[in-house]
Write a structure and sequence with these properties.
By secondary structure, the protein is an alpha+beta fold. The chain has one domain: Nuclear Transport Factor 2, Chain: A, CATH 3.10.450. The protein has 3 helices and 7 strands, in the order ααββαβββββ. Strands 1, 2, 3, 4, 5, 6 and 7 form a 7-stranded mixed sheet that branches. β6 and β7 form a beta hairpin. α1 crosses α2. This is DUF4440 domain-containing protein. It comes from Chryseobacterium rhizosphaerae. InterPro entries: FrzH/put_lumazine-bd (IPR039437), NTF2-like_dom_sf (IPR032710).
C-alpha cells in the first residue's frame, strides 16, 4: 500500500510540475523576448487585451500599453535588457493562474533595480497568456538574483 501511495505522490508531483512549466512559459518568454529584443516573442506572451502597470514610489499606479512596451524594448540591442526572476508562488484555479516573481533588472550588464512582478494569466485555446502584470521598482534593499 505504501508503494502505491508513493507512486501516486510522484505522479502528482510530476503533473503539477508540468502544469507550472506551462503556466511559466509565457513569463519566461516575456523575459527572453526582452533579452533578445524580440517583439514577436514579447507579443506572444500576452493576451489580446492584456494590462501592464507599475506601482510608483509614491504609491500611484501607472499604466503602460503593451504596444508601447514592446516598441520600447525593440529599440534595444540583444542582451541590453535582462530581468532575472525567481518564481516565488504559483496558484491556479481552472483557467486562471497567479504567479509572483521577485526580480533583479540589469541594463547593459549593470544592475539597475529590483522589485516584484505579480502576474495574472489566463488559459486560452490550451495556451497560457499573461492577462495582467503589475510590478514594483526600487534601487534599495535589493537582493540580486543570479
Amino acid at each position: 500500500m505504501n508503494k502505491i501511495a508513493g507512486i501516486l505522490l510522484l505522479l502528482g508531483a510530476f503533473c503539477f510540475g508540468q502544469q507550472n512549466q506551462d503556466i511559466e512559459k509565457p513569463i519566461r518568454n516575456l523575459f527572453l523576448g526582452m533579452k533578445n529584443a524580440d517583439p514577436e516573442l514579447l507579443k506572444s506572451a500576452f493576451s489580446e487585451n492584456a494590462v501592464l502597470q507599475t506601482i510608483a514610489k509614491d504609491g500611484t499606479v501607472k499604466n503602460e500599453s503593451i504596444q508601447d512596451f514592446i516598441a520600447s524594448v525593440s529599440k534595444f540591442s540583444t542582451g541590453d535588457l535582462e530581468e532575472r526572476i525567481l518564481v516565488d508562488a504559483v496558484h491556479t484555479d481552472g483557467n486562471l493562474a497567479s504567479v509572483f516573481t521577485p526580480y533583479s533588472f540589469y541594463l547593459k550588464g549593470k544592475f539597475s533595480h529590483c522589485g516584484a512582478n505579480s502576474f495574472q494569466l489566463v488559459k486560452q485555446n490550451s495556451d497560457w497568456k499573461i492577462q495582467y502584470v503589475i510590478d514594483t521598482r526600487r534601487k534599495d534593499n535589493c537582493r540580486e538574483i543570479k
